[in-house]
Write a structure and sequence with these properties.
The chain has four helices and five strands. The protein is an alpha/beta fold. A hairpin with a 3-residue loop joins strand 1 and strand 2. Helix 1 crosses helix 2 and helix 3 packs across helix 4. The protein is globular.
Length: 136
């Protein structure tokens, strides 16, 4: 399961049964770290997920800012209450790439793009993981 964690919305993606391709799955409205964590774990459990891959928002210079710290807090929360494997992938530019996909290929209005862009970014994050971990 791929997660693009944001302060307003959280994009969720899933991979196919053979772990070859990822697809946008859902968007969650962000409430609080605790409630978001429980919702992410509920989705993971319902879909029999073995690994949750979070996009880690790293600055262009490689440093981690406030959003990366927030993502790390969510990961720690998950690790406290669940044994599911959690990992991160550098998510630089995935949201911008998702936006470009929607504009170039989807011809979708700005309002509709907001929710879609987050789950497409999650799918891009998950696809990076799938492509670099072929045995998963």
């Amino acid at each position: 399961m791929g997660v693009d964690y944001g302060l307003k919305r959280i994009g969720i993606a899933m991979t196919d049964i053979l772990h070859i391709t990822s697809s946008p799955f859902d968007t969650i409205e962000s409430v609080s770290i605790r409630k978001n964590t429980l919702k992410i774990l509920e989705i993971a459990k319902t879909n029999d997920v073995s690994v949750i891959v979070f996009g880690l928002p790293v600055n262009m210079n490689g440093s981690e800012g406030e959003m990366a710290k927030t993502v790390r807090k969510v990961i720690e929360e998950i690790k406290l209450i669940s044994s599911i494997e959690v990992t991160t992938i550098d998510e630089r530019l995935t949201t911008a790439q998702a936006e470009r996909i929607l504009i170039d290929e989807g011809d979708i209005s700005r309002r509709k793009r907001k929710g879609l862009k987050d789950k497409i970014a999650a799918a891009l994050i998950l696809q990076i993981y799938v492509d670099t971990h072929p045995s998963v």
